[in-house]
Write a structure and sequence with these properties.
It contains 14 helices and five strands. It is mainly alpha-helical and 340 residues long. A three-stranded parallel sheet has the order 1-2-3. Strand 4, helix 9 and strand 5 form a beta-alpha-beta unit. It binds adenosine-5'-tetraphosphate.
Length: 340
């Protein structure tokens, strides 16, 4: 039997090459060796201000991106988080073993709390507990994520340890774990592109919320990709010396989308102080366009089949519920919450 894991993306906007290189590409690479369960995590997305009327299209578009990128519903499970209520129920159980001080110290919470000020809600504070629930419900042993998610994953591991030690089974092997632990401690699976920076603000990570000019979306047509890259921040001079964050980011993208010869060629020009960024950007645009081309074509074809997308999501969520229900029952049993 393939080991299982859960990973997900918030439907907070267009998926970009950061999401692709940091998470989705690993999902596809692992598809044959693991049973991946991929969530469109809408309950996470409502913890920040959003427009309710936008949500259905965002969820649909995220599913389109997942399938177009290569997720195969015959090998993997695609779900909508709010269709599987066991996620929120498990989050409540886990919150009872999670000290408030643990969630308050999470860097992304502290940063968002600074930005959102009075709009900080309980959901944002307990976001990592819901993420831990997403992961443990499927007894995930790995979680492919970008670097930004490492503090959340570390917290998941702490929550798992806390739950396991408090509710270790007296019956030991009953649930297939020799130690009597119910949940495995999940390991982060980091891809080569685990931290892609913004094109326009390269000190920050590429993000949906920074606006369309800072990212290349999986759905961007070739002319838009060229325009966005043309505006990407680089050094002012002809290269040499220490690279600025913007230039470093372009070289990282080149290492992920272009051949080794191309990377070596531009690196040599940079070292010699002879680089022309417009040439580098043009070549990088060509390579990104040809890499994303098949995804764009599949996306276009799938967008004409909304019934199929709906079917994949409903069937996937139902399959996930069967697994989630079983794990939730085990957790409740350990906690003395099964009565009849
Ligand atoms: N820039 C990035 N580089 C590498 N990986 C990234 N990921 C996100 N940005 C980058 C990875 O994508 C997965 C899904 O992320 P998410 O949408 O659930 O949340 P996020 O990290 O908050 O993504 P965004 O684009 O920054 O969304 P907003 O702006 O809405 O907050 C995760 O595995 C993440 O590591």
């Amino acid at each position: 039997m393939r080991q299982r894991y859960f990973s997900g993306i918030q439907p907070t906007g267009e998926l970009h090459i950061g999401n692709y290189l940091g998470a989705i590409k690993s999902w596809i690479e692992l598809q044959d060796s693991f049973e991946g369960i991929f969530g469109i995590v809408d309950y996470h997305a409502i913890t920040e201000p959003y427009k309710p009327e936008d949500m259905p299209k965002r969820v649909f578009d995220t599913a389109l991106d997942y399938l177009a990128a290569g997720l195969d519903p015959n090998k993997s499970i695609l779900l909508i988080q709010s269709f599987v209520p066991e996620h929120t129920e498990m989050a409540w159980l886990l919150s009872s073993v999670t000290p408030v001080s643990w969630v308050e110290r999470v860097p992304t919470y502290k940063e968002k709390a600074r930005q959102l000020k009075t709009q900080v809600n309980m959901g944002l504070l307990s976001y990592p507990v819901l993420m831990a629930a997403d992961i443990v419900l499927y007894k995930s042993t790995i979680v492919p994520v970008g670097e930004d998610q490492l503090p959340h994953l570390e917290l998941t591991r702490e929550i798992v340890r806390s739950f396991n030690s408090k509710y270790r089974s007296k019956y030991g092997y009953k649930y297939g774990s020799k130690s009597g632990d119910i949940f495995p401690e999940p390991q982060a699976y980091l891809a080569g592109g685990s931290r892609i920076m913004s094109l326009t603000e390269p000190m920050k990570k590429m993000s949906k919320s920074l606006g369309a000019h800072n990212y290349i979306a999986l759905a961007d047509p070739p002319d838009v990709i060229r325009k966005k890259l043309a505006k990407a921040v680089t050094d002012i001079g002809p290269g040499g010396g220490e690279m600025s964050p913007g230039t470093k980011n372009l070289f990282q993208l080149m290492s992920l989308f272009s051949s080794k010869e191309t990377c070596d060629h531009f690196k040599q020009l940079y070292d010699e102080g002879n680089i022309r960024y417009s040439d580098m950007k043009q070549k990088l645009a060509d390579d990104i366009i040809s890499d994303l081309g098949p995804i764009r074509d599949r996306r276009l074809a799938l967008s004409l089949r909304p019934e199929y997308i709906r079917k994949v999501l409903i069937e996937g969520s139902n399959r996930a519920r069967e697994i989630a229900r079983q794990t939730l029952h085990e957790a409740k049993e350990r906690m003395g919450l099964t009565y009849f």
